[in-house]
């Protein structure tokens, strides 16, 4: 019998509200499902910051010199090849026994606006953004309009279906 890796997902909120109290389990579920779908067999660690548009705008400005809010930002620790998680035990942090994949910043304000714009529920949008961002941590990108973007979109759709997040959530 194989055991699942013990991933650690830290979720920090810039500000607490009733609106975001219940999203931590969703975020963890989406990250774990993405890692499983990508065949990640080593225990991993991911930090997630929940913020608003002004918070993510500041991060976007400081990290990327883009002075505008966005929905989600990913800061991978390593450069993996998409679909080929090639970390071995040398990537493990000796103190935690996990591979630190990187950081994610998510604007709940932007996620809610996009959910309304696209006609689906906020949780569905958050789930999509978290899956999208986790794939970035695993080496996926979509800067070009070619095969890499199509591969990433295909993986996102497959993982959302696997988790069972409906359009209305």
CATH class: Alpha Beta
CATH topology heading:
Collagenase (Catalytic Domain)
Structural class: alpha/beta
What order do the helices and strands follow? EHEHEEHHH
Biggest pleated-sheet summary: 4 strands, mixed
Please report the total strand number as a whole number.
4
Structure characterization notes:
The protein has 5 helices and 4 strands, in the order E-H-E-H-E-E-H-H-H. With 169 residues, the protein is α/β, with parallel strands linked by helices. It has one domain: Collagenase (Catalytic Domain) (3-Layer(aba) Sandwich). Strands 1-2-4-3 form a 4-stranded mixed β-sheet. Helix 3 (108-118) crosses helix 4. The N and C termini lie far apart (34 Å).
